[in-house]
Amino acid sequence: MHIWTHCLDRSVPKLTEAQAQRWAMGNQGGYTSPRDLLHTIATGLQIILPFDITSLYPSCQRPIEYETPTGVKRPLEEWYQGFPDIRGGMQLEDYNDRDMTDHDYTDLKPKLGMLRISYDQSELKSPVLLANLEAGLNTALTYVGKHEGWFTVAQVRQAYHYGVKIVLHEIEYTTNSFEPFKEYVSIFEQKKNQADVDNKRLDDLKNSRPLTEAESDEYDANLYRRTIAKLMLNSLPGRLNLNINRKQTMLTRNTADLVPILADEERYKLSELQELKVGTQSVLKAVYTEGDYDYHVQQFDVAPHLSAYMLGYSKMLMASHFKFIREIGATPLYTDTDSIKILFENQAQVKLYTDQFVPTVKTFGGME
Hints:
Elements: H1 2-7, H2 17-24, E1 32-34, E2 47-52, H3 56-59, E3 66-68, E4 71-73, E5 83-84, E6 91-99, H4 102-107, E7 112-120, E8 130-135, E9 138-143, E10 146-152, H5 153-161, E11 165-174, E12 177-178, H6 182-206, H7 213-240, E13 248-252, H8 259-263, E14 268-278, E15 281-290, H9 293-297, H10 304-327, E16 331-336, E17 339-344, H11 347-357
Antiparallel strand pairs: 1-16, 2-17, 3-4, 5-12, 6-11, 7-10, 7-11, 8-9, 13-15, 14-15, 16-17
Helix pairs in contact: 6-7
């Protein structure tokens, strides 16, 4: 966080509690699931290949661009907006539950925010929007045909472009955009890539002769530098989406431990108090939160509106892959957040896919 804040050219304001709750709905993790038959065997000219996006989350913290044998590719160029700059505040607008039109698609382009929509993607070969389903303590992020939820403007515009039927309900947005992660990502991308280049050279050397002690130490040092760079790149989005008002649990046999929680209602909010039997012993369980949102938000540099946009871009990038795979006649078999296992009917399909998504030089946001 300290390094990131020094890379910023402007401050990032705090959200109100109501805003934070809305933006939290857009902070959903990765999707992992079979996309077709669980048991598939390639026959004849078919071939099954795995692909993995290079540094998915870091790549979605800035415009995605890479070069393949057929030219420069910008898979999200039509919908990429940067990140919402909320220093001037945000506006609320009611769409009165109307069907989204081409006019709305154009009108939404300069707006960065969260949209509440209902959608129907049941007729699409490749669904676009993910729903977070809950049943008791269990949750699942998955594709459903029809649902309602909050999504970034960029996600909604891509979904509409891909053929999803959308009803617009309400939006919270700004028209101001900025790039808060570009410099930060570039710093650690360079360090990570340099470590890879240096160790590739040492790996090639190792194939011809044993490494010297100094070369072995250099190899280990490069691995360490690469690990630190990767940690810096992947941990920042999670840190910005930290749950700052988490419930705490106390287990005690001494009722005196509960006195501060029960006596100070301004500082502590008790949500559960029960007695548990452990053999012949009894234990008191208290579930509570300490402090309110306004107190916690001043202690932590959180920005759920920024992490929501980054996660939104990551799902949009994956959606662009799934759509292309179906369009060329191939089949996505399985996905795990940033990877896809694909069944191609022939080598021609493999070339179509790699020409679109696999850079000639390993690049953030490209497949490998």
